[in-house]
Amino acid sequence: MGFKALWLSYGEFAIVDPALTATMPASLTVNTGLDVFSHAFEAYTSLASNPMADVVCEKIMAEVFQWLPVAKEEPSNQAARQRMSVAASLGGWMLSSGCAHVGHSLAHVLGAKFHLPHGLVCSYTLPVTIETVAPVLPEKVKYVGNILGVDFPENVSPEEIGRLTAEAYRAFRDRLMDGKSCEFPIDESNIHALAQEVCQEAFAPLTPVKVDEELAVKMLREIR
Fold first, then answer.
1. Which of 29, 86, 27 is nearest to 62 (CA)?
2. CA 171 to CA 169: how far, in whole Å?
3. What is the CATH number of the domain that holds 131?
4. Residue 96 scores a pLDDT above 90
5. What are the b/e assignments for 48-83, b being 16+ CB within 10 Å?
6. Distance CA 120, CA 177 (A)
7. Does the residue 32 lie in any domain?
8. What are the pLDDT digits (tens) for 99-155?
9. What's CA 151's distance to the chain center, in Å?
10. Which residue, of 94, 117, 118, 171, has the greatest Cβ tally within 10 A?
């Protein structure tokens, strides 16, 4: 599906009732909530990003960081459910404004190949995406790190900004998942074929760095 076709496939409206989310299993709450964070981060750092959408994306990420743990631990907490429902709706809106990029390309390929939930896979492809874009968008990634509670040292390098922000996100994810981890059966027998699929995926061209097979292989190796 080309980018134009993907764009035209969006629905016109959605009815979102936070009360209906109260009985969601904890794993579904976490996976979908982390997908919201991925939507916001990728729209924030894509080639289609813009100053107005950036402000919305920053708020979405802050909301998820604050309210997703509450929604998970207190499923009937309507304040948390409402805030996450609003964040999710805004995250969907940002897909039509700033779109997404290589994190979702990786997640679409891996999720389809290994039959894994989309939000779960996004939570593993986002850290390596953070590290990949940090050298070209260090200030944006640093802002996200601040949302995640990172205290950056003075004169921190773009690469270190990426590493520290990615580690803070992984810690946030792992706390929500109660220490459980997801393994991807990626090895030399399939990594290059997967990388080629990532390069051909619709969102990949919106990444702020060129996504070629070499980069895709590197990212696939570093998913954890």
1. 86
2. 5
3. 1.20.1090.10
4. no
5. bbeeebbebbbebbbbbbebbbebbeebebeebbbb
6. 10
7. yes
8. 999 999 999 999 999 999 999 999 999 999 999 999 999 999 999 999 999 999 999
9. 21
10. 94
pLDDT tens for each residue of 47-82? 999 999 999 999 999 999 999 999 999 999 999 999
Alpha-carbon distance 145 to 42, whole Å? 14
* Residues 126 and 37: beta-carbon distance below 8 Å: yes
At residue 131, the pLDDT reads 98
Question: Does the residue 8 lie in any domain?
Answer: no
Q: Tell me whether residue 17 is in a domain.
A: no
150: left (phi over 0), alpha (psi -120 to 50) or beta: beta
Average of pLDDT values for 17-40?
Answer: 97
Asked if 21 and 78 count as a contact pair (C-beta separation under 8 A), the reply is no
What is the domain range of residue 33? Answer: 24-222
User: Is residue 10 a part of any domain in this protein?
Assistant: no
For residues 206 and 100, the answer to whether their CB atoms sit within 8 Å is: yes
Q: What total of structural domains would you count in the chain?
A: 1
